[in-house]
Amino acid sequence: MRLYDISLKGLRRRLGRMLLLLLSLATAVATLVTLVTITRSMNHSVAHRMDEFGANIVIVPQASDLAVSYGGITVGSAAYDVGVLMLADLEPIGSIRNARNVSVLAPKLVSAVSLESREVLMAGVIFPDEIRLKQWWQVHGAYPVGATDAPVATLGGHRAMAQMEAGVSGADQAVLGSRLAHELGLAPGDMLVVEGRNLQIVGVLEENGSQDDQILFVDLTLAQQIAHRPGEINLVEIAALCSDCPVEELVRQISEVLPQGRVTAVRQAVTLRAETVDQLTRFAVVVSAVVTLIGGLIVLTTMLGAVTERRHEIGLFRALGFRRAHIERVILGEALVISLAGGIVGWAAGMGVVALLRPTIDELAMTSPWDPALALAALGGTLVVGLAGSLYPALRAAALDPVTALRAL
Amino acid sequence: MIELCDVTKTYNPQGAPVHALYQANLRVNEGEFAAIVGPSGSGKSTLLSVIGAMNPPTQGSMLVDGIDVYSLSVEKQADFRHEYLGFVFQQLQLLPYLTALENVLLGLAIARMRRADKVQRAREVLARVGLAGKEDRLPGELSGGEQGRVAVGRALVNEPPLILADEPTGNLDSNTGVQILTLLQELNAAGHTVLMVTHDAQATTYAQRIIPILDGRLVDGDHDITKNENPAINGNGKR
Q1: Per-domain residue ranges for chain A?
Q2: Are B52 and A406 inside 8 Å of each other by CB?
Q3: Domains plus CATH for chain B?
Q4: What is the DSSP string of A251-302?
Q5: pLDDT of res. A64
Q6: Does A13 contact chain B (CB < 8 Å)?
């Protein structure tokens, strides 16, 4: 017979009450494990989708002093940029350490062209990449031939180069922003003459409130030919997946391999992503705190009840010469066993719930729920809550006057 | 061995004070079997709890081998109870969910001994009180006398010099009471000092010395110990 034997015997003696306590702790742990797993998956999913949805990094030529705004992003002046950035310069991006985080790389040449005696912005783009970057685009008519093929520039630039040089991807076809089309009175199927080149309007973008509404989009190679700037680009938009690396780190890596470009993070995209992820995390933290608090209170009241029920027994222990620390060890020993069991059962139940929910929640399918750190955290957290909730009852039991046992006679 | 010097225990000292003990002086020598006798409410259980290092007196001191026990820390007082005292309670206070062996082992739960040694000693003690073969019985499966023997075994297992018994026959039938008293007598004969409180005149016949108590006062005190004239003590009866 040792102190932990007394703890175990005590648990068996009050099996019903202790099973209820175990169930309460297990329920709390299962709730937390499920919540944390789902929230983490949702965070990952949201971050992933937000990263894919629009650019969070832009590159402009290094020496641009004058600025124009494009798509809400401040870029080097289309008309006055003095630095030169070539499409081939992007190739080393494919070899940076976090190249796999680069989801979409959309190079473009933005320049001013005369159109029916007025100046408009013409953006030469690689349509497959641009469409993937701007998933909110809706087009009346169609995109240029080959525009919906797999993105090319994303793969590091060299395939884009090859494809551009081969003259595919809808050369001599154009897509108009909605306001520009409206102002020019043009519709899909109409022809347009730009700097002596006949272009067919194949599509008009639906109005989306951005500067895209006033831009003429053509194939990058065609834009380079029209602007007499072969191989040149003056803006690159990048959608980077930053769920496992900070965007600033990607900016640093790209800057290293692209000294001729000025690489900047789009602050608002980064901030929005962080805020969204933070909100989800905050929600999980608040719910976790409430569940933990409730779990702790259940432990506290149950153990207090057990101590009251056993005051004569505790008095007997004191009469037999148990020190206060011995009494505390008996009570905390019981809490330790219950908490450990509650943590294991709760974690297993939580994983079971996650497995059941996996087919119905898309986000859960994106990440693996089997995380040893989560299991350790669940066990550790349950032990902390169980022991903390039992500390006051243990101290109270230890402080019981031993003469209580004699008075009970 | 044990010496009480002017011990007063007052309950409710701020309101209407009640002197459960008043200026009690007592010396219990090693090897004695003494019975503190008095009616209900006379203060005998309070006296036992004071001697049991569980109820500090309001005034006075209790010396054990010259050491003032209540000047020790609470934890040292617990150590004193563990090493020096064995309690036999009126209600026996056996834990119903522990076997006879486990109830006896409770007395050794905090002892620094190997588990096997503890079990061996507990078995020996159970055999000594006549319960060999019943180690694995729960208290509910034992007779009243057997339960009393388990309680005595628990008090005995740590080999304390002093055994304190609070109304050991209080809730037992006469036959079982006799068994327990005989057992205490045997322990005394084996060298243990036994101090028993009781209101049962028959029980006092087993003691060598009777100390009457009334309204919190030891009637004859330390210097006027009443020698037991009972034939049980003087060779005609049980002893």
Answers
A1: 3-47+274-407, 56-265
A2: yes
A3: 2-227 (3.40.50.300)
A4: HHHHHHH-TTEEEEE-HHHHHHHHHHHHHHHHHHHHHHHHHHHHHHHHHHHH
A5: 52
A6: yes
